[in-house]
């Protein structure tokens, strides 16, 4: 009689602890926002409140931001439906979010939307113009993987729209609202696709 040792199972890599994803991304975007404030302060001599909020135009800014964000979400739906590479990209990104909760995703959407718009539209666009801001924004959303190409193209379109909103409305508020909306819906969708069980074969 021989004893058969049970087959060894390779443990799954540990998922990030609660709050780790939020802490890490919040730190990165906090530093980005600080860099933007320093940049604007050095270039302009101060950071005007009108960059963030113009009370007389607040309602229009919010509505235009919501409209722009909705437009980008519609474009995302179309791309996901008709471009296989875009749908594959979403699956790739969803796999990078192990252990992330919906609350953390919403918080990251708000933090990243504000910090990126403050940096790219507030600092870069204010100093170098909208084109450089849109191009650098697209380059930030890129990488070595071949699937990131569609993401970069979408980011260039989104960055150009955010730039136009900022020029048209005179503050970054509409772009911030649009950016947060797109990030929030996108991250929630990624979490849903990650948690959807695969069909039985």
Question: Describe it for me?
Answer:
The chain has 201 residues and is an all-alpha fold. It has helices at 20-44, 58-82, 84-94, 102-128, 130-140, 148-169, 173-195. The chain has a domain at 58-194. The protein contains seven helices and no strands. Mean pLDDT is 85; it is low at 1-16 and 197-201.
Quaternary class: single chain
Distance between the termini: 37 Å
What is the string of helix and strand elements?
HHHHHHH
Q: What percentage of amino acids are in beta strands?
A: under 5%
Helix count, DSSP H or I runs of 4 or more residues: 7
Q: If you compute it from the alpha carbons, what radius of gyration comes out, rounded to the nearest whole angstrom? A: 20 Å
Spatial shape: globular
**Structural class, from secondary structure content?**
mainly alpha
- Mean pLDDT reading: 85
Which ranges are low-confidence, i.e. pLDDT below 50, for 5 or more consecutive residues?
Answer: 1-16, 197-201
Using DSSP, what is the number of strands?
0
Q: Sheet with the most strands?
A: none
Helix content: over 70%
Topology:
Layout: H1 20-44, H2 58-82, H3 84-94, H4 102-128, H5 130-140, H6 148-169, H7 173-195
Helix pairs in contact: 1-4, 2-3, 2-6, 2-7, 3-7, 4-5, 4-7, 5-6, 6-7
Which key terms come to mind for this protein?
globular; 201 residues; disordered C terminus
Brief overview, please?
With 201 residues, this protein is an all-alpha fold.
């Amino acid at each position: 009689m021989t004893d058969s040792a049970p087959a060894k199972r390779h443990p799954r890599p540990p998922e990030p602890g609660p709050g780790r994803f939020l802490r890490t991304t919040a730190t990165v975007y906090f530093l980005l926002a600080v860099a933007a404030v320093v940049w604007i302060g050095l270039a302009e001599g101060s950071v005007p409140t009108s960059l963030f909020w113009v009370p007389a135009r607040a309602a229009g800014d919010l509505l235009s931001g919501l409209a722009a964000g909705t437009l980008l979400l519609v474009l995302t739906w179309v791309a996901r439906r008709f471009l296989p590479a875009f749908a594959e990209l979403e699956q790739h990104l969803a796999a990078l979010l192990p252990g992330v909760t919906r609350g953390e995703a919403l918080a990251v959407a708000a933090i990243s939307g504000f910090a990126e718009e403050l940096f790219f539209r507030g600092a870069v666009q204010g100093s170098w113009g909208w084109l450089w801001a849109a191009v650098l924004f697209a380059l930030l959303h890129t990488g070595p993987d071949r699937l990131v190409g569609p993401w970069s193209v979408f980011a260039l379109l989104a960055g150009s729209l955010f730039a136009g909103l900022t020029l048209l409305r005179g503050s970054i508020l509409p772009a911030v609202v649009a950016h947060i909306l797109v990030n929030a819906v996108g991250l929630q969708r990624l979490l849903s696709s990650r948690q959807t069980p695969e069909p039985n074969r």
